[in-house]
Design goal:
4-stranded antiparallel beta sheet; 4 helices; globular; alpha+beta
Length: 111
Amino acid sequence: MAGWAYALEEFDCRTGTYLAALSERGRAFCVHRNAKGFSRVGYARHGDVVTSFEPCLPHLTNSVPAEAALGFVHSGDESAEAEFLRFLEGEFGIHLPWNETEEELPSAAFT
């Protein structure tokens, strides 16, 4: 995984704002998550945001579909989120531990 770094964010993230800048010299992925686990992927290449999508909800894609932007197609053999993480590992050598993406985050309600 040389040359890659990653961070998992809560759903209310800020990395999306910087995704284009982070990709200036290549590619950047932003994997969002919410309190229940894996949620959304942002992808930028050479300073331009290419797409933002939810692997299990293709109708919520912003811009280019994941199939066209990355070649990712959900086969239905396992959850879309797990399949996408395997895709990242196989295609780009990026390994995000599945257990980290599905663990619940601490939360609180304020009235």
